[in-house]
Specification:
mainly alpha, 13 helices
C-alpha cells in the first residue's frame, strides 16, 4: 500500500510571463552544433519584440504555427535540414515542428525537451476518449522551476493540436503588436522568395493556413504511414476475397453433389444432404452420425413447425433410395430436388439474420461430408 501526492499546475499567461525557465535535476543536453547564420537571423527577427523569456517562447510557437501541416514532405537528414525547414519548405509534421522549436529554444539557453505520446482523441457518447493511431503526436516542453515541464504546441495541425490557453496573450494588454507574438502574421518582406503568397493565406483565428490540409493524419514517418496503408489495404482486399469465396464454394459444393450423382437414387441422396446442410446452419441442428434420416427430419420439423411434412417426405425418399430393393425413378429424383428447394426457402425465411450470415459466410461448414453409399455404389465397389 502506498500513497501518491501529485500536483498539476494550471498557470496563466501572466504567471508564466513573470516566471523564469529553470534547470531540472540534470542540466539539459546542449545543442550539438551552433545554428546557421540564416536560422539565427530568423530566430532573432521572430523574437525581436519580446521582452521576457516566456514571450520569446510564445513568439517562436506563434511563428511556427504559420507554416503548413503536411505529412507527405520528404524524410531527410542533413546538417542544414533545420534551415531548409524554416526558410524553404515551411511545411512538415509534428516531429519537425517540435524539433525546430526545441533547437531554437535551446539556442536561447532554455531547457527544452521533445515529448512523444498521443492527443486526447475524441469523446464518445459514454464520455470516454477514443484514442487511435491518428492521435500520435510529438510536442516540445520547456522547464519552468515553479511549474515543471510546460508544454508548447508549435504544430499547426488543423482542428487537433491547438496552442495551450496559457500561451494566448490576454486581450487588452497591448502585448504582441508587431512582435510576432500571438497570431499577428509575419511581414511578407521577411519571407524567403516564393513564400509571401503562403503567408497571405494565414488565418489568425484558426492558427493555420487556409489553403493547408484539412484532414488530420498520423504524425511520424510518412514512409511508415504509406507502408502501413498498403498493408491495411492488402488485408482488406484479402478479407473481401475470402468472404466472397465462401458463398461461391458452398454453392459449388451443392452443385457438385448433384452433378456427381450417378442415377436417380444418388440424386435423392444429394437432395437430402442439401437439406441437412441448410438445417445444420439455419436451424443449428446438425445430424448425428447414428440418427436415421426420418428421426432427423422429425427433429428439424419440431424446431420449425412448417417444415415437418416436406422434411419427412424427403427423408422417406432418402431411406428408400438407400435401403429399398427397387430402384428409384426419375420422378423420385425430381421430387426430391423440389422438396430440398422448398425446405431451403422455408428455413431461410424463418432463420434469424445471424443464422443467415453463418449460412452464407461461415467457413467451418465447407467440409464436404461424404454421403452414405447408395446401393449402386455398393454394387460398383463389390464388383
Amino acid at each position: 500500500t502506498y500513497t501518491v501526492e501529485s500536483l498539476a499546475p494550471d498557470p496563466s499567461y501572466g504567471e508564466l510571463n513573470a516566471s523564469v525557465p529553470g534547470i531540472p535535476g540534470q542540466a539539459p543536453a546542449r545543442v550539438a552544433q551552433s545554428l546557421t547564420a540564416p536560422v539565427e537571423a530568423l530566430r532573432d527577427r521572430w523574437i525581436a519584440g519580446a521582452t521576457t523569456d516566456f514571450e520569446n517562447l510564445v513568439a517562436i510557437q506563434s511563428q511556427l504555427r504559420k507554416f503548413d501541416y503536411d505529412i507527405d514532405v520528404e524524410d531527410q537528414s542533413s546538417a542544414d535540414y533545420l534551415e531548409t525547414f524554416l526558410t524553404d519548405t515551411r511545411a512538415g509534421y509534428c516531429q519537425q515542428f517540435a524539433t525546430a522549436f526545441a533547437l531554437l529554444s535551446r539556442s536561447l539557453g532554455y531547457p527544452t525537451r521533445v515529448s512523444v505520446g498521443f492527443l486526447p482523441g475524441e469523446r464518445d457518447a459514454n464520455g470516454d476518449f477514443q484514442v487511435t493511431g491518428e492521435d500520435a503526436h510529438a510536442w516540445p516542453e520547456v522547464y519552468f522551476g515553479t511549474y515543471g515541464w510546460v508544454p508548447f504546441e508549435p504544430t499547426p495541425r488543423p482542428g487537433l493540436a491547438q496552442p495551450p490557453d496559457y500561451t494566448n496573450i490576454p486581450q487588452g494588454t497591448g502585448q504582441g503588436e508587431g512582435s510576432g507574438l500571438g497570431s499577428s502574421p509575419e511581414s511578407t518582406a521577411d519571407l524567403p522568395p516564393g513564400q509571401a503568397d503562403r503567408a497571405e493565406a494565414f488565418d489568425p483565428v484558426e492558427g493555420g493556413n487556409v489553403t493547408g490540409p484539412t484532414a488530420p493524419g498520423p504524425s511520424g514517418n510518412p514512409q511508415w504511414q504509406r507502408a502501413f496503408n498498403r498493408i491495411a489495404l492488402g488485408l482488406v482486399a484479402l478479407a473481401a476475397v475470402f468472404f466472397a469465396a465462401i458463398p461461391l464454394l458452398k454453392e459449388r459444393r451443392t452443385r457438385r453433389r448433384y452433378h456427381r450423382a450417378g442415377g436417380p437414387g444418388e440424386v435423392v441422396v444429394a437432395a437430402f444432404n442439401h437439406f441437412a446442410d441448410d438445417a445444420s446452419e439455419l436451424v443449428t441442428i446438425p445430424r448425428s452420425p447414428s440418427e436415421s434420416a426420418v428421426s432427423y427430419a422429425r427433429r428439424v420439423g419440431r424446431a420449425r413447425a412448417n417444415q415437418d411434412a416436406p422434411a419427412l417426405r424427403l427423408a422417406t425418399l432418402y431411406e428408400t433410395a438407400e435401403y429399398a430393393r427397387a430402384p428409384m425413378s426419375q420422378s423420385d429424383a425430381l421430387r426430391a430436388r423440389e422438396l430440398a428447394r422448398t425446405l431451403r426457402r422455408g428455413l431461410w425465411r424463418e432463420a434469424s439474420w445471424w443464422q443467415r450470415v453463418l449460412r452464407v459466410f461461415a467457413p467451418h461448414t465447407l467440409g464436404d461430408v461424404p454421403a452414405l453409399p447408395t446401393r449402386s455404389r455398393r454394387r460398383r465397389r463389390a464388383a
